[in-house]
Amino acid sequence: MSTPKNENAIKKNGRIVIVGASLAGLRAAEALRNEGFTGHLTIIGDEPHDPYDRPPLSKQVQKGWVRADHTKLPRLREINAEWKLGVAATSLDRAKRVVRLANGEQIGGDRLLIATGVRARQWPNREEAALKGVFTLRTCDDAAHLQAALAANPRRVLVIGAGFIGSEVASVCRTLGLKVTVAERAAAPLAGALGNVIGAIAAEMQRDAGVDLRTGVSVSALEGDAKGHVRRAHLSDGSTLDIDVVLASLGSIRNVEWLDGSGLAAGFWGVACDAGCRAFDIHGVVTDHIFVAGDVARSPHVLYEYQFLSTEFWGNAVLGAQIAAHNMVCAETDRRPYLLVPSNWSGQFGVNIKTIGVPAFGDELIFTQGSPKHRRFAAAYGRRGRIVGAVTFDHGKWLQFYKAQIMRSGPFPPLQAEFDLPADMRVIPADFPARGVPTAAPDVVLTGHDPSERVAEYRPRTARAEIRKAATAANKEQKKQWRVAS
Amino acid sequence: MTPEQAFTEAMKFENRPNPYPFFDELRKTPVARVTNGIYVVTGYKEILALIHDPRISADLRNRPNRPNRAQTDPSNGDGAEIEAELLEKYGKDPMMIIADPPDHDRARRQAMRHFGPPHSPDVIPNMEPACVRIVNDMLDKTKDKKRMDVVDDYAYPLPVTVICRIMGVPLKDEPQFHAWIADMMAGAELGPDAATEEGKRRKEKASASRIGFRKYIIQLVENAEKKPSEGMISKLAHDDGPDGRMSPSEIANNVALIFIAGHDSTVNLISHCVLTFLRNPGTIDLLRRRRDLIPRAIEEVLRLESSVNFWPTWTALADIEINGTTIPSGSPIFFMYGAANRDPRKFRDPNKFDLEREEKESLGWGAGIHVCFGGQLARLEVNTAVEAFLRRVENPKLVIDPPPYRRNALFRGPLHVLIDVDGVRD
Asked: Which of A343, A397, A407 to substitute to test the interface with B, most B CBs within 10 Å?
């Protein structure tokens, strides 16, 4: 049993290892020092760059306002850490309490924070993905390459997938005066995150801005020229497009492969942890020394039936890092729960979109304030008579009102505003697309109650090809379960 | 002390220099019913919740049984008729601070088009050279003096010059509109002082000055309509943006709002900065060494000495439950920013001027959709004024503490802040 003396010893001269050198990793390091941790701190990151901010990469950077390498995160304090950048962690030995790195180094520690985040899902056809002019957008290097391609005045840009990133880049293309086609498998942009009702408004925004938006289609093939540069796209409806730039914005994949064989509950939706950020093992038993934060974490949430919530939002990385850092070095009686009400923002087509809570958990929708027609409104999402989320278009200043109701699981329809009411205030189906397509998964998602069985499978260390095969099988299995669940 | 008593004391002129003990009393009941069924909110969390609640109106027309000032106020005398006439033509569309969405949102968009990003990102930054020149001119003028009044000699001229330029108001009219605004501010009393003979006289004077000021603003708007010129008044009068043009009455009311708010509260903040720095020994030396702390210091002063100490025009449009209290529909609500900014549940050791403070989000700029329209301009002005003061004024010492305050409880600020100085550097 751990005693206060042990915690004090950790705090004073323990060794803490943070794997992941982005927002969550940096903020956790700062929080640890704020907590009074004076021991040795190692931060490991597979990218060679100092921690940087990602939200501008799809907006200001693409517009050419800010250089891709000029979004470094502000440092909130000295952290006196040993940085190991440009070298990935490749495995975790829990028995020896050692993280192994790609360069063969071994880093031992008393506490580990897993903050390895996610990566962009690549265009599935490898040869096509390798064509010049085909991009994904996650890192600052990605952003620099895409920005250079957009600045070179391409004939047409094809954005595959109209989630937040794809929609934001399409918006930038129009600002830059570029022709852009958006191909989306669902019936509307942002449908996975916000449902088809709000998606229809987003679709109007795109079309009004001159985006060639094509919904209900997928891209079946990309074709290159003799020099290996992408020039043409074939769509599932039989049409073709002449294009010079392709952005595959197909959602993200959790960076959990390095944990293969560790026995942690890691899988498709990330690493399961308890409400105090402590990682679960594959049996659903909580670990003592390993913590998880940021995009890669999934933890049970009191507001959402204690389902495990996975959130790829900025605020999740910041708050998760703070809670994890605190709980890593505090006494057992001082631990804090991680109870974020997820919130997210996007800027596209001149509209500021904000969400609070988990819209995709809802199945009903009501416009509560403003005018959907003018794309200035607030809307609330409900499920079984409770408010579970809200979205605003240029109405962000009212989010607090909905947040307070979400936090106390208030009734749905929610408290009614007394002015600026929408013409139609009926409760309607939010019309989310059926779950099952990984690329259509929203970036805040409830992933069930079980830390391991349903969404994490034990994966022994195998050759890469076998891992891929296993992953495909797992995806298939998952889809099946989704279908069963829905 | 009952909440009523605490509220009355907090409004009294004699307590203007230090209303905070009474705010502390009031805050024991963060949402308290006081005189005339008014609900006074002094808790930080409570204001933040209510200010984001779309069941609370900023529009005075939503207050049941609201007396029409022009018709029912006998002190207006002959002025009442003139004002009624003005109201007829220019009073029907309220200024945005007392309007609700969607009208508020539209008006704010229309005004912001000519003031800030995204359409006019350069208006405020372009004022910086002028700000720097004005504050240094002021200091040059006081060079040979050993005593200066921070309010009249330093804080006032900067914001008034800048807002005149931005709005397109002739600076030569300053003595006239300064007098009007001073009367209007002095006559807008809410506490027991209003009922005294002197209070009634101040109110009378305020009514007369309000008419003079309104006529003046309306004249500026009408001139701008006829002949386009530089400045926001003309831009509003000739607006061709996506929301169209404000009505003449809306232009006049919003111009009056931006013009008054655009300098009065900034004067208070600059004066309070100097006052607070001098009350906390070592601050001036620290800020001279660490100029990067200046913006933080200004925000901390605004927390401690809120330029808009409270705002009284809110009305509950439904029964609203907050922290165990139900505010009945129709009740007037006052948000006491100055009290909430010293709420110990939000700010540790709240009366302390603390540059290391972690909790920085005060309600000094308000919050929600009515959050300060001119905040970025004010920040530029106050930063410029504080920087130059710190750099050039040698060994400033407070002469009188507390200084005399102006009468207005809402736009609370010192009348004079006298300081002795060793000199003014070049």
From this structure: A397
